[in-house]
Amino acid sequence: MSELNENLPEEKNSAPRETGEEGYVDIVVQKQGTSYILTGIGGTVGEMTYHMVDVDTWIVNHTFIDPKYRGRNLGRMLLDYVVAEARENGRKIIPACSYVLEQFKQNPDEFADVWLKEGETQYSDTYSSDSVMKG
């Protein structure tokens, strides 16, 4: 497990907590390849995955938070880790995941430096009907 909190804003430094048999148990954030995984006492609590489309561009394509843990800003915490890593490495993000796209739209100034918007790239979400070129 790596310590990832140093790149996050100060308010993000405290790990989320869950109740265990002996009180509170930390939910651990781990980077695994091109994903961030939240693990708690009962296993995986959430995850966010991305993949590289070129040396400068990532597509964030999946976010999942176990229904028992939703409403605790854990998805946003995962997004903060991905964005911090993208900034550190000079990457841009295409938000193919609906959660990430919604966060980018709600906070455009916060993500302006990493958000690769439509028309700025040759890549598109192949699952979206808007990505089909019309003749």
Short description:
This is N-acetyltransferase. By secondary structure, the protein is of the alpha+beta class.
Report on this model:
This protein is an alpha+beta fold. The protein has a single domain (5-123), classed as Gcn5-related N-acetyltransferase (GNAT) (Aminopeptidase, 3-Layer(aba) Sandwich). It contains 3 helices and 7 strands, in the order ββββββαβαα. The strands form 2 sheets. A 5-stranded mixed beta sheet has the order 3-4-5-6-7. It has a two-stranded antiparallel ribbon with strand order 1-2. The N and C termini lie far apart (50 Å).
The proportion of residues forming helix, as a percent range, comes to: 10-25%
Number of helices: 3
The sequence of SSEs as H and E is: EEEEEEHEHH
For the largest beta-sheet, the strand count, sense and barrel status come to: 5 strands, mixed
Q: Would you identify the regions where 5 or more consecutive residues have pLDDT less than 50? A: 1-14, 19-24, 126-135
CATH superfamily: Gcn5-related N-acetyltransferase (GNAT)
What gyration radius follows from the Cα positions, in whole Å?
16 Å
Q: What is the fold named in CATH at topology level?
A: Aminopeptidase
For the biggest β-sheet, the strand order reads 3-4-5-6-7
CATH architectural label: 3-Layer(aba) Sandwich
CATH class: Alpha Beta
Question: How many β-strands, per DSSP?
Answer: 7
Keywords: Transferase
Organism: Paenibacillus chitinolyticus
Region (Disordered): 1-21
InterPro entries: Acyl_CoA_acyltransferase, Gcn5-rel_NAT, GNAT_dom, GNAT_YJDJ
